[in-house]
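Let's study my pick:
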Amino acid sequence: MATDQEIRDAGFKYIPQQKYLQNPFELPENQETVVDKGIVSTDAFTNSGGGGGAFNPYNVDMSTIRQDYNVFPSRQAAEIYSKTFNPRSTFDPSLIKAQNTANLVRTYESGTGPGVMRLGNSVLDIKDFSPGQRASLLKSADSFIDDAKMRYATEGQYVNPYDPNYSSMEEAQKFMAHPLFEKYYGVNEKGVQIPGILGVGLEFLKRKMPINERAIMENEARGAGIFTDDIGRIVTDDYNTAGGIMAGYNLNKIDAGTFDKRRSTIEKTIADKKAKGLDTTVLEERLGLLDEAEAEILGARKKTDLIYKMRKDKKDTYEKRKKEEKAAAATTTAAKTTDVKDTSGGYAGTPGGNTGDPGGNFANIDNSGKNYGPYSKPSPAPQYTSQDDTRESRRGRYFYGGRVNFKNGGLASIL
């Protein structure tokens, strides 16, 4: 039997003394001495994206990073809130044609428009034109619009030269749902449909939950080739890219000031190296990447703001419609419950109702049993001269349909 000291020396520090054990403790054979090393370090959380010290934004396995991009929200928001020069005091078909042509070419060239326009019974498809022809169309349209701006500005014929293309969001949605454009804007994309009450509940929560601005921003950044990990930090496997130059930054916190500081640091380093006669080619290339990253990220921010506005406007419109429907329903219900006439000739809720009296008004039956009608007042109570008169007057109360006294077999009130 091992002694208490031998047990401790073998590393079993929490075994009770042998004298307190029902069965003596025996040391395992071939037992290695246990050395207390504290908390053992492992690699279980290396590159887990949880903010630990092992995070490296430059050598990420991009197969583990989300890279899909949903282009539809950006296209829809750009269409809904697009603006065009539109003098209010005149109707100029040539100006309208020039505006539509310029918008058509620009949106197609930037990838934000379908490049298709209906002209009467025909359809103009910009894809059928060569780049040179598109440039010529755009130049001609812009020239005409500039002339119109100058002419109308000089004549003072408008208050605000820019108006939305659509009078309402519903009008824009109707345009985007047209068979010619529905696939481009994705307005009829249903996605995964969940049937029954669960689907209704999810739609309700979707409308009630706050708009996830970070998710919108990360989606738009993915469209520009800039990717993030699960907590929003920019990651890359290639430093020499627009996304790579900003690797490690939290995408949702980047603004114009972030780029100004980064640019200032690089420019200072370039100046120092030049003063020492050192090569600055690599740093100057980084400045170019920084300019590209600024355009991409701040461009994604503008799209995010527009999409956020679109979704907020939709939520506000939905809530306003629901309130109006609720108010209308309440008004209708109130109208139905006001002045509901009793089928017996009286009015529900008046004193003496439900007495059996044809007028429903016990209060209008005097002590003689005479009914004075639902709208007349009873005459003063008669003076009784004998017990027989009193008994007869009591008889009149229920003989003509009045309330029967409880002791004579009438109904007892439980109130």
Observations:
- The chain has eleven helices and six strands.
- The first strand starts at residue 83 and ends at 85.
- The radius of gyration is 42 Å.
- The chain has four domains: 1-37, 83-164, 207-334, 344-415.
